[in-house]
Every structure is written in structure tokens, then in C-alpha cells.
Amino acid sequence: MRHGAYDYINKPFNLDEMALVIRKALETSELRREVVQLRSEHKKQGPPKILGNSKHMRNVLEMMAKVAKSDASTVLVQGESGTGKELVAKYIHYESARADKPFVAINCAAVPATLLESELFGHEKGAFTDAKNSKKGLFELADGGTVFLDEIGDMEIGMQAKLLRFLEDRTFRRIGGSKMIPVDVRIVSATNKDLLKAIEDKSFRNDLYYRLQVIPIFLPSLRERKEDILVLANYFIEVFSKEFGKPTKGISSMAEKLLVEYNWPGNIRELKNVIERAIILGNDENLLLENLPLEIVAKASHVTVPLTTFKLPPEGIDIEEVERELIKQSLEMTDWNQSKAAKKLNLGIDAFRYRMKKFGFLK
């Protein structure tokens, strides 16, 4: 065993026992290969791409680079939902000396309080009813690497005390165990909650807050960095156009205005989903107004559409006649080039041809 054997079998033995040991040995071997492969892939890929030219993001990127190269053991990332807090945690990990070690993440809000302790610290066999085998926790599995505690603000108050105790000396006991286990892990926590308000409400420990936020990083919302919206949108267009085999390479001027003017309550996650949907449904070189969800078109404020000096007459007008005239004029302006004419009206080619056929310009 000291020289690397996985297990041993006592004589006399039965075939079922031997088959079970061999199966477990093969599973362990396969898992180890997968871990090596994943670590190798992460190392090749490097840190995630975080884009932004705004002053806010330049400051954040500078802070992230400093933290990654430092020995800071605790980092607190704060920001609204969808601002990319996990990407920041991964960037810090993969740009650090810990890059070859594990990066493990857990959502503290998604795991019941009764199970979170076992997930983080592990347990010994027989520690509770369903503990049929010993299990290593995330802190033990990530030794040498980084643990990302997402939604730390939702952690139950009793569990907060246990986490604080661990942070003091980086040692812990598995549930049901007596041995103190030391580990070397960097803790990156994240929350979209106002922790100072939570401290006032007695739902978050004051001492844990100051222990976690040795290095605080505040991520701005997308509406606070509007100059980055089109940078991110064009990046997502490039990614999804390649993924779905679509020709889209840019954004029409009207679509750009709406994207910039929209407030993006869901931040980067919402922008990413909107672009993905637009690429799937569209089939043009540019992302057009009609590819955007209605809620964006409706909620975008202060967007002015350049119009001619047309004025609605008192007696009213047939809207179909106005649409027919616009189709006709766009065709005449472009020498009946349908693609160019469609772009003049910010329409997709299929939508434009439908209208041509509707008004008798196309048989």
C-alpha cells in the first residue's frame, strides 16, 4: 500500500469481493485520469475572458491581477446577480500560483443548511444515518487550490460560525471525526446581498464579514458601464455565430441604440441570453431590431428613430399605404437590391421579402 497499491484482498477470498475491489479500482483510476485531463485543459485555456474598457472595469481588472499574484487567502466579490462574480473567482485562481490545483465551487443558497457542513468539511463513516462511507469535503478536495463560496450571504447563521472557525487557522474536523485536518486553500466568496445591511438585521455575522473581506472586489452593474455593452455584445455575437454556424458579424445602428439604452436588470447574463436568442432566430449579417425581445424594445428609453418630416394628417392615413411606400422607396434607393433595401428599414431579408410579396413587388 505504501508503494502505491490501491487495495488488498485477504485469503481466502470470494470472486464477488474481488470483482467489487477491481471495479472500484478502475473507477478511481478513471476519475484520476479525468482530473488530470481537466486540469490540463484548464491550464491550456488559461483564465476566463473578462472584457471591459470602462473605468470601472479597468479598476476591477487591475485589482484582480494584483490579488491573483498575491498570497491573499480570502477575497470577497460583491455585485448584482449576473455581473460575473464566478468568472472573477476563476480568473483569480487560474492567474495564480494555484492554477494547477483544483478550483471547486458551491452555491451556499442551493444546498440545504443540514448538508452544507458535510459538503464543505466531509464526514466519517457512520457520522449520520446515510453516511455509509467516509467522504472528503470540498476544502479537503481543493487543498492547494481555491474554493468559491457563491451566495455566501445566504449561509445559515450556525454554519457561518463553523466557517469562521475554519478561516482562523485553516483546519477542520470531518463530521463524526476527531482528527484535525489542515488545508491550504484560498477562499473566494461572492454575494449579491448588502452584507452590512444583513449584519444590521442579525442575519450575517459581523466577525465573519470582516474575515471574508480582507480583499474586497466590487463588480459594477452593466448599466454603470454602458460603454462596455457593445464590446460584450459583439463578443457574444462572435461566439454564438461560430457555435450555431450563423453569418451574423455585427449589429445594426438601431439595435445598437436599444442595447445601450436598455437598463439590463439581469446584467451580463441577460445580455448573453439575448444575443444567443437573436443569433439562433436571425439569419442576417447584422443583428437587427426585430431580433431583439419585445421587452427590450419597449423598455429602452430615450431612443429616437430618425424619421423624415412626415406629419400625420388630421383625417388620418392607411398604415398599410405608408408601409408600402417605404418598401417602394427603399427598393428605388438601392436599385432594387433587396438585401440593401432591407437594411435601410432594419428588416431581415425574409421579413422584407414577405412585405414585397404582400404589396405586389415580388411574385
Automatic annotation (TrEMBL):
Keywords: ATP-binding, DNA-binding, Nucleotide-binding, Transcription, Transcription regulation. CDD domains: AAA (cd00009). InterPro entries: AAA+_ATPase (IPR003593), AAA_lid_NorR (IPR058031), CheY-like_superfamily (IPR011006), Homeodomain-like_sf (IPR009057), HTH_Fis (IPR002197), P-loop_NTPase (IPR027417), Sig_transdc_resp-reg_receiver (IPR001789), Sigma_54_int (IPR002078). PROSITE patterns: RESPONSE_REGULATORY, SIGMA54_INTERACT_1, SIGMA54_INTERACT_2, SIGMA54_INTERACT_3, SIGMA54_INTERACT_4. Signal peptide: none annotated. It comes from the Bacteria. Residues 1-26 form the Response regulatory domain. SMART domains: AAA. It comes from Geoanaerobacter pelophilus. The keyword Cell division does not apply. The keyword Translocase does not apply. PANTHER family: ALGINATE BIOSYNTHESIS TRANSCRIPTIONAL REGULATORY PROTEIN ALGB (PTHR32071:SF113), TRANSCRIPTIONAL REGULATORY PROTEIN (PTHR32071). Residues 50-280 form the Sigma-54 factor interaction domain. This is Acetoacetate metabolism regulatory protein AtoC.
